[in-house]
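Quick one, T. Sequence first:
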Amino acid sequence: MARFLQHWIESQWQRIGLLAVLGFPIALLFRLLVALRRVVWHFGLRRSYRARCPVIVVGNLTVGGSGKTPLVLWLAQWLHGQGWCPGIVSRGYGGCARHWPQQVRPDSDPRVVGDEAVLLAHHSNCPVCVGPNRGAAVEALLRHTDCDIVIADDGLQHYALARDIEIVVIDGQGGLGNGLMLPAGPLREPVSRLRSVDLVVCNGEHRAGAHAMRMRPTGMVALNDECQAQALDAWRGRRVRAIAGIGRPERFFDMLRRQWLLVEAVAFPDHHDFSAADLAFEDDLPLLMTEKDAVKCQRLIHRDDVWVVRIEAVPEAAFILRLEALLNALPVRYEPAGR
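Structure tokens:
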């Protein structure tokens, strides 16, 4: 029922329909509150935390998945290659820690710090710190590590954290929906907000005024043994069961179908707290899942035929050139420690 309701709302957000009409008065009020909040921070009526190193925020304007986390991972690896020592902060969505901020390791419990945080710690080779207060998370990160640049995952609307570079990721399939604010549409901020950010990236289909980014599958590894790897090409024509508890699960299933796999798809809500029952299927089909879901499912399932599909973000060259220019324009005190 919850999945059906989510699908209905998302479909309504793509047009001016019943939900848009009924929610329009609330959306106007929400837009006013968002504007007032932005004015409060912009004019210094409330002070933002300014880190002693540059901060890059990667976020989006809409509710739901857009491809931010793969871009954050790409950005961390690219910054390493440029001589920086990046660290990552995030909200820790879905985590139930009693005290924040929390330093995150690859073996941290996703129920405590959030699934995306564990994924970032596992694949970025960077220190990761999470907490609802991003400024406190950055301060804790810098106090315990030698980071000289910080990437904030999904912090575009968190104005309590000052930033040097803002990157917005747009979903190529859903785009900006009907262009309306919540709850009439999917927007957290008005479309005009795009004019104030430094970089706009479109995940998937091309969008005017945005840099292109695609997701490339790099293969699969066994859930409980990463030394066992398989190429997706080797599974052409094979029937599999795929599960996904992410913002837009159909994107994952469609990617597998483009690799000529015969997919029996099972979608779960974003950040779903998996149980053993969720993973108990009557058939004997091999089970494929996303990296984000794998960090939660590893403790629940011990079959040999469970595979984690790995993907990587591939932004276009023009995006990289613009990013280099923005970093080169930072104050001299912000140069990477290795230079």
